[in-house]
Amino acid sequence: MKKSIILALFAAFCTLAAGCADDFETVLNDKYYEDDTPSREPDITEQTLSLGCYNLWISGKGTGDYLWSNRRTVLAQSIVKNEWDIFGFQEANATIRNELPTLVEQQGGSYEWWFVGRDSQDGTSGEALGIAYNPDRFELSDKHFFWISPTPDEMSYGWDELGYYRIAACAMVTDKLYNKQFFMMVTHAPLAAAARAEGAKLLIEREKMYNPGGIPSILVGDMNATMDDASSKTLRTHWNDSFLTVDSDFISGSVGTFNGHKTSADLTQATARIDYIYVRGDVELKTYKVDNTVYGNIYPSDHCPLTIRFDTDYEKPAPDEVEGSGTAADPWQLNSVSDWNTVAASINGPAEDAVYASTAYYKLTADIDFNNKNFTPIGFSDDNTASFEGEFDGAGHKLLNVKIVAPGKSCGVFGSNKGTIRNLAVEGALSTEFEIAGGIVGVNSGVVDGATFKGDITGGANAKTLGGIAGQNRGTIVNCANLGGTMKTDAPKDPNMGGIAGQIAKGDDGSGRYVINCYSWVDRLEALHNNVGGIVGIVSDNSFVINCYSTVEEIVANSSCASVVGYSKIGNLQNIYGNSACPSKSAANAAVGSDKKAGTVWSQTTFALLSLGEMKSGAVTVPSSNESCDSFVAALNAGAAIFNDTPEATLPGKPNVVLRKWVASESCPVLE
Predict the structure, then answer these.
(1) Domain finish residue from 269, 284, 311
(2) Strand 486-489 vs strand 565-568: parallel, antiparallel, or unpaired?
(3) Smallest Cα–Cα separation from 119: which of 136, 87, 97, 99?
(4) SS3 167
(5) Are residues 284 and 418 in the same domain?
(6) Which CATH number covers residue 406?
């Protein structure tokens, strides 16, 4: 008999002898073990890691002993028994997500759990897979997930797999004790053959995408495939199958992994092997094991868990050093993905641990391309306590290929801003279940000056306020532009969507806030309900929209929508311009869909509807002054002068800002 069997039986005997609560008698189906004892021992060191793969089997199935209430404890026991440092898992439905971490902790396990649900765009809903890890030893970074489909970045079915959404998740894993690093991916492959085959190609493609440096790589999953399946053959062109790679003397347990909840299942057959751990690169495999322990008279799951033990010598690269000192004269200078994410992590973390403070000065010194790279928003936290309060100067540089998908109340490139963000250009996509989201900032309570956003913003059923620059503006947005893309949400009511801001509301002092000298070239706005505008969705609390224009041609909404402002609850709207081709509701031929009540500064909205041709050439009259200008550019500059000349006594809380000059372009007017 192998030593591993003796040790396992001895451990089980000791546990029973100790009389631990809720333990079940466990036995090994040792008919799956060969009787020969290896003459060598694996070279296990202090750095050797134990990594597992486990399909947990959803809680809603099973009868008798296999009811969740009867197997939940033994499932937790089996996880603890395998002593994984880190493991990937599948089939964690809501009940398992809610209960299993606590059950494992009660059995003596200590894990941080990353769950990714397959049934929502932000990965928070539905049956989940993910990674559980010892947080004292590991940290995860550069997290990503995608669907196994022809459109992997959108929640979608894959090829001939039409019954279930299938996903994969991946992250960089850092061993904090030894400064080692590897890339880890976990998936639950489709049942349908074509989807499985195409999905294998996608897994390889995404591994290359998210691991461009080619660091050691591990893929774990329920692959729903035998070793001779086309998908298995494809995966073996990129990764090595641990079972086929490790020294045969150090393989233990059954060949098969799918037991179907039958202790009589024949696991000696390779056809029962559908769970895999694949490795690539500098991964030194030490052992491979399938744990077919029976607890009482049941298996904890319909799959047997797998374990590899391995070493890797790949050291985590030292982070780039961010130059500067964080003062106005010497701001922190960001020019790489590492710089941005390092600063974001510091600002978002505990203030007492911050190297880069939320109140400091920052400046971009180059464009930063986040293509296939993790992006961490600044001033963002799950509990909405973090906020940027310093000054960030984009210096005209761009953040490119930004993709934001994360849970929370509000988010954007900046989650919350109470400071100043200026001269920053962002190109990317925001696909979210956030309540409040914007291309630049989720909630702005400070100043955003000279920022631009270009890309698509998609809100889910939980979305309430979406904007191209800011979701909700409780401060000042000036000299900003939405340079094109679409905005869409399937929220059932009150989405509050605008090309620049979803909503303008009062600030902390109770005064209304401002959107001034901005323009939006957004292509299309679409919502199921109301309050949708080319510039602002809803203006409330005696707030202001001044000297702005929108070219949007198509808005799909139920009511209160128009080319500039969807709904003015109590708003001061002066010199606003919309596209005459864009229909409006509830007011016909207006720049405001529903102009319910004027603000206290201007009793009447002053607006003009222009064709795109008129915006590009020809005379235009300034609505508030009736001044005739020879071009739209001149009219916009005249409107800016009117704002500048309006005394602070007339404009409550008039912001101290400099309006930029409008100039002609190959298209419509732009700001210098």
Answers:
(1) 311
(2) unpaired
(3) 97
(4) strand
(5) no
(6) 2.160.20.110
Listed in sequence order, the residues at least 6 apart from 24 whose beta carbon sits closer than 8 Å to its beta carbon are 73, 74, 77, 295, 296
Q: Is residue 340 part of a domain?
A: no
Give the bridge partners for 549, in sequence order.
519, 577
476: domain range? 381-671
Residues 387, 292 share a domain: no
CA distances from 213 to 172, 200, 317, 587, 649 (A): 11, 20, 11, 56, 59
Residue 554 covered by a domain = yes
- Both tokens assigned to 571: 């708003």
Alpha carbon distance 453, 467 (integer Å): 10
Tokens of 530: 């109301």
What are the respective helix, strand and coil percentages of the chain, to the nearest 5?
15, 35, 45
Nearest to 488 by CA among 466, 473, 518: 466
Amino acid, res. 56: L
The reply to whether 167 and 57 lie within a common domain is: yes
369: three-class secondary structure by DSSP:
strand
Q: Where are the alpha helices (DSSP H) in 327-412?
A: 337-348
Question: What's the pLDDT score for residue 89?
Answer: 97
CATH of the domain at 197: 3.60.10.10
Distance in Å from the first CA to the final CA of the chain: 80
CA distance 272 to 88: 20
Distances from the Cα of 173 to the Cα of 140, 143, 283, 314, 647, angstroms? 5, 10, 14, 11, 57
When divided into structural domains, the chain yields a total of 2
Place of tokens 């800002």: 657
Burial class (CB in 10 A: 0-12, 13-18, 19+), 524: middle
Which H or E element spans position 166? none
Angstrom distance (rounded) from CA 83 to CA 60:
27
Residue 381: what pLDDT?
64
Structure tokens at 163: 């019954």
Give the residues of the chain that fall short of pLDDT 50: 1-24, 26, 30-35, 38
At residue 140, φ and ψ (nearest 5 deg) are -105, 140
Cβ pair 436, 380 in contact under 8 A: no
- Can you give the pLDDT at residue 55? 97
Identify the pLDDT of residue 359. 94
Pair 292, 398 in one domain: no
Final residue before a domain boundary, out of 311, 327, 343: 311
Residues 292 and 406 in one domain: no
Looking at the fold, whether 591 and 483 belong to one and the same domain comes out as yes
Predicted TM-score of the model (pTM): 0.70
Distance, in Å, from the CA atom of 308 to the CA atom of 326, rounded to the nearest integer, reads 46
Structure tokens at 377: 């928003």
Q: Are residues 303 and 444 in the same domain?
A: no
Residues 406, 492: one domain?
yes
Strands 306-311 and 284-290: antiparallel
Query: What distance separates the 2 farthest-apart alpha carbons in the chain?
Result: 98
Q: Give the DSSP H/E element, type plus range, for residue 636.
A: helix 632-645
